[in-house]
């Protein structure tokens, strides 16, 4: 479940008087997602998504997230569009939490990733990177190298509860990445959490991207590295080079990678593995007993990290210079 804040009927009715989107017909909590409270809002004018932003989202970051979604939509990328109230503002407050209404996006996220999904994702990712180039707001990635250290420290060695020796592996990998992390690769706005549950398809066509609440300025190729991790491994942890090749080729048809970006992919992929390994580990060891939200498996990302550590050349990702 991801409805942390319940919205009483009279509050939503009152809230909608701030908008021109008709009267409420129903408000249904959405079970998926872990960060925020999401509702499907059905009004006399159609369907919308109502989101109440919970603790992990900084209120000061919301103009960046909502502005980025609007910017992408203005530039032809299919994603939820923030709905402005009668006062022209899309960021509001409901039940004591920051809140926004966005348009409803048709489509389903793929339960089983097929090669064609990876191809479609590569193309859309590159289009988003180009579209983001003239977005004026800035948000540094709070979960880049410095942020990883904060999460690592916050885990207080509790990795041992999950796997003996994990703390040592994490410390060593962090030290390696801190020294080797590239500093001069092309940067831009990235989504930073483009996992399969955030990418909708209708049949074989990508219908849109959702959940922009980790979006930030960072190395563009780091997004590819995140997606190699999230989309190109099979259930048995084997790397699917066909999926990677399709994703990287489709990306490059829209935004060709520079030589430095290609050469950096193994390091970027290690960083991406460590980032999700750490946040998953933190959630795992701090998971309240009996909570509805099931934490995601950190060890899946340890296995992915091991693959990237073993990579000998970029041809292991199905790409050549
Ligand atoms: N604009 C939208 N149109 C249609 N459905 C949406 C939209 N936004 C969210 N949803 C639905 O709500 C679910 C949760 O949304 P979202 O992924 O943004 O939540 P979250 O709490 O930020 O979760 P997480 O960060 O864990 O993915 C999605 O899986 C989808 O079913
Ligand atoms: N996509 C993240 C969780 C939510 O942002 C993960 O799989 O760890």
**Rg on CA atoms, Å:** 20 Å
Largest sheet: 5 strands, antiparallel
**CATH architecture level-2 label of the largest domain:** Alpha-Beta Complex
What would CATH call the class of the largest domain? Alpha Beta
Q: In terms of structural class, how would the helical and strand content be classed?
A: alpha+beta
CATH topology of the largest domain: Aminoglycoside 3'-phosphotransferase, Chain: A, domain 2
Give the end-to-end Cα distance, rounded to a whole number of Å: 45 Å
Number of domains: 2
* Name given to the CATH homologous superfamily of the largest domain: Aminoglycoside phosphotransferase (APH), C-terminal lobe
List each distinct ligand once. Answer: adenosine-5'-triphosphate, L-homoserine
């Amino acid at each position: 479940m991801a409805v942390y804040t319940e919205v009483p009927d009279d509050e939503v009715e009152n809230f909608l008087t701030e908008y021109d989107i008709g009267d409420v017909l129903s408000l249904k909590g959405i079970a998926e997602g872990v960060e925020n409270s999401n509702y499907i809002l059905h009004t006399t004018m159609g369907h919308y998504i109502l989101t109440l932003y919970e603790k992990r989202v900084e209120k000061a970051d919301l103009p960046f997230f909502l502005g980025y979604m609007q910017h992408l939509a203005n530039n032809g990328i299919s994603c939820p569009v923030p709905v402005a109230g009668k006062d022209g503002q899309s960021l509001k407050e409901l039940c004591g939490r920051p809140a926004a209404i966005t348009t409803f996006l048709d489509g389903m996220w793929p339960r089983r990733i097929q090669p064609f999904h990876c191809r479609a994702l590569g193309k859309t990712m590159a289009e988003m990177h180009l579209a983001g180039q003239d977005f004026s707001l800035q948000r540094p990635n709070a979960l880049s190298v410095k942020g990883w250290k904060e999460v690592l420290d916050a885990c207080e060695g509790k990795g041992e509860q999950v796997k003996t020796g994990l703390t040592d592996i994490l410390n060593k990998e962090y030290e390696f990445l801190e020294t080797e992390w590239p500093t001069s690769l092309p940067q831009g706005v990235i989504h930073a959490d483009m996992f399969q549950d955030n990418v909708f398809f209708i049949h074989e066509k990508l219908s849109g991207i959702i959940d922009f609440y980790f979006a930030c300025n960072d190395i563009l190729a780091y997004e590819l590295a995140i997606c190699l991790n999230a989309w190109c491994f099979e259930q048995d942890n084997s790397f699917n080079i066909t999926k990677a090749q399709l994703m990287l080729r489709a990306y490059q048809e829209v935004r060709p990678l520079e030589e430095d970006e290609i050469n950096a992919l193994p390091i970027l992929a290690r960083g991406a593995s460590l980032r999700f390994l750490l946040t998953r580990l933190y959630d795992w060891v701090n998971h309240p007993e009996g909570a509805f939200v099931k934490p995601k498996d950190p060890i899946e990302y340890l296995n992915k990290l091991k693959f990237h550590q073993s990579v000998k050349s970029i041809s292991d990702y199905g790409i050549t210079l």
